[in-house]
């Protein structure tokens, strides 16, 4: 019998997984969109969508297996950018149900009784494209995806890579209505001082905790060392466990966001950080009040193994 996420968070640091899309792009199964348009604006059309779940399920199974072998206690179903809104723009709108259901089925198949399965829900990109007036439509799309994920049997949700706190609030309200526990992480760009609609990390943490998130934090965009100061601001603002899934790419003093750097997406190899940075982050996680730790873009299983080593060394 698997423990529930909320029980695990009470007793230990939970090791997650990730990241899926960049790794599967490198392996040739995901389209970055860079041959068609400028990537990194936050408004991308069909970029980095998760149709690999139905088109090349074995590739996705294999990556789940690698993360599980590395020690992940929770596998994320590859449902990132899986709202009908985003899939429509990639030409996969009609497959919204099958992509979400299949992604969860594959993650559950590999997890068995050894790991929890999370449904990943990300921003729709509607707010970036159309402004805050689109929040109502955003709610419909996020609610639909969460319903699909719940029907497919996920254990909890990871709401991740939201740029606007306003859209995260919508997602947390949809999660609460579903009854599923939710981990909530914002992505800060181009600097870690505030999110796109102008809220500090501390404000984001308070709002996400107030709306019922079981862990709050940040994912993507920064490497662990660059993310740490914003996590500390969040730590000081709330008592719920922190969640951190950093990227494995160097950023600069002027730009704390790898997706805003010219190396994204076709020269990421030149700004890759070593897995040792993740081992150090794992060592520090407990002392920093982080309850859920994993990786995001640029991490493969070696990085999750390094996190596991770091966590084990800090016991
Ligand atoms: Zn990422």
How does this structure look, described?
The protein has a single domain, classed as Homocysteine-binding-like domain (TIM Barrel). The two termini are 25 Å apart. The protein has 13 helices and eight strands. It is globular, with a radius of gyration of 17 Å. An eight-stranded parallel β-sheet has the order 1-8-7-6-5-4-3-2. Helices cover 43% and strands 12% of the residues. It is an alpha/beta fold and 315 residues long. The model has no long low-confidence stretch (mean pLDDT 97). Bound molecules: zinc ion. Zinc ion binds next to loops.
Feature tags:
315 residues, alpha/beta, TIM Barrel, 8-stranded parallel β-sheet, 13 helices, globular, binds zinc ion
Low-confidence stretches: none
Report the end-to-end length measured between terminal Cα atoms: 25 Å
For CATH, the homologous superfamily is named as Homocysteine-binding-like domain
Helix content: 40-55%
Global Rg: 17 Å
What is the CATH topology assignment?
A: TIM Barrel
Alpha plus pi helix count? 13
The class by helix and strand makeup works out as: alpha/beta
Distinct ligands, ions and cofactors found in the model: zinc ion
Strand-residue proportion? 5-15%
Query: What's the CATH architecture?
Result: Alpha-Beta Barrel
CATH class: Alpha Beta
Count up the domains: 1
Overall 3D geometry? globular
The helix/strand order is HEHHHEHHEHHEHEHEHEHEH
């Amino acid at each position: 019998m698997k423990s529930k996420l909320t029980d695990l968070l009470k007793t230990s640091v939970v090791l997650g997984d990730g990241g899926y899309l960049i790794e599967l792009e490198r392996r040739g199964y995901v389209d970055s969109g860079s041959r068609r348009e400028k990537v990194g604006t936050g408004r991308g059309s069909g970029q980095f969508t998760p149709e690999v779940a139905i088109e090349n399920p074995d590739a996705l199974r294999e990556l789940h297996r690698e993360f599980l072998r590395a020690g992940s206690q929770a596998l994320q179903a590859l449902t990132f950018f899986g709202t009908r809104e985003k899939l429509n723009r990639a030409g996969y709108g009609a497959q919204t149900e099958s992509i979400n259901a299949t992604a969860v089925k594959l993650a559950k198949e590999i997890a068995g009784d050894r790991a929890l399965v999370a449904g990943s829900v990300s921003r729709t990109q509607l707010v970036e494209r159309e402004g805050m007036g689109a929040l109502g439509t955003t709610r419909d799309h996020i609610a639909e995806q969460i319903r699909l994920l719940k029907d497919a049997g996920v254990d909890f949700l990871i709401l991740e890579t939201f740029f606007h706190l306003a859209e995260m609030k919508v997602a947390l309200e949809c999660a609460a209505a579903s009854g599923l526990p939710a981990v909530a992480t914002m992505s800060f760009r181009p600097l870690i001082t505030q999110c796109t609609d102008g809220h500090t990390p501390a404000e984001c943490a308070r709002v996400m905790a107030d709306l019922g998130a079981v862990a709050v934090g940040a994912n993507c965009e920064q490497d662990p060392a660059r993310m740490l100061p914003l996590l500390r601001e969040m730590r000081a603002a709330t008592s719920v466990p922190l969640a951190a899934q950093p990227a494995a790419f160097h950023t600069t003093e002027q730009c704390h966001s790898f997706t805003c750097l010219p190396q994204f997406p076709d020269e990421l190899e030149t700004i890759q950080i070593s897995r040792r940075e993740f081992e150090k982050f794992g060592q520090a996680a407990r002392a920093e009040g982080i309850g859920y730790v994993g990786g995001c873009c640029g991490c493969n299983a070696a990085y999750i193994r390094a996190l596991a080593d770091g966590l084990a060394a800090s016991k």
